[in-house]
Amino acid sequence: MHTRAVITVVGLLLALPPALAAQGDIRLGLGGGVIVPVRSHADVIRKGWIGNASLTYFPAASASLGLRLDGLYGRANLRTIAGRQEYLGGTANLVFQFGSRRTPNRFYLLGGGGYIRTRTTGPGFGESRETSPAITGGAGFSLGGRGFALYVEARYLSIYTHGSKPQFLPIMAGFTFGGF
């Protein structure tokens, strides 16, 4: 059942861009950065790294409001013992951009939710995995031309696991290709 759902989602993502491009603006993005743990999670992990891939769609009828799908993978070392914590998942976000639709030199806000798989490994306790709901919100700025732009963004990500609740600030930079 899970495999069928993944195949369906991947198929939709591959089929949607040509159909949506005729009706709006699509941007593909890649980025990376640092994970800064916050609140009680700062006692559990050290700063780590994160990678991100995104697909953003702005309908022709909307100059500023769009939908962004993010896939992410991150990793951080545990603070008190040898080991690490990894994050793999995706979120769906609403994006609101300020400024003209035709220029990527814009400030934006984003927020949404999704599911993140948290995997913790270390000597002495083995491995722990859990897929849990997550919420995210943040802001960023993009700078560049219509077809290519650089971006910098920071957001808050909270994962609702059993026990400790991973909360961190991914601070990322990357690039987007757009105007498809």
Topology diagram in text:
Layout lengths: L1 H20 L2 E14 L10 E12 L5 E13 L6 E15 L7 E17 L3 E19 L3 E12 L7 E12 L2
Antiparallel strand pairs: 1-2, 1-8, 2-3, 3-4, 4-5, 5-6, 6-7, 7-8
Summary of the model, kept short:
With 180 residues, the chain is mainly beta. 11% of the residues lie in helices and 63% in strands. It starts with a helix and ends with a strand.
Structure description:
With 180 residues, this protein is mainly beta. The protein has one domain (2-178): Porin, CATH 2.40.160. 11% of the residues lie in helices and 63% in strands. The chain contains 1 helix and 8 strands. The chain has one helix at 2-21; strands at 24-37, 48-59, 65-77, 84-98, 106-122, 126-144, 148-159, 167-178. It has an 8-stranded antiparallel barrel. A hairpin with a 7-residue loop joins strand 7 (148-159) and strand 8. The longest helix has 20 residues, at 2-21. The mean pLDDT is 84.
Question: Which characteristics define this entry?
Answer:
180 residues; mainly beta; Porin; 8-stranded antiparallel β-barrel; 1 helix
* Strand order within the widest beta sheet: 1-2-3-4-5-6-7-8
Low-confidence stretches: none
Assign an overall shape. elongated
- Let me know the average pLDDT: 84
Report how far apart the termini are: 33 Å
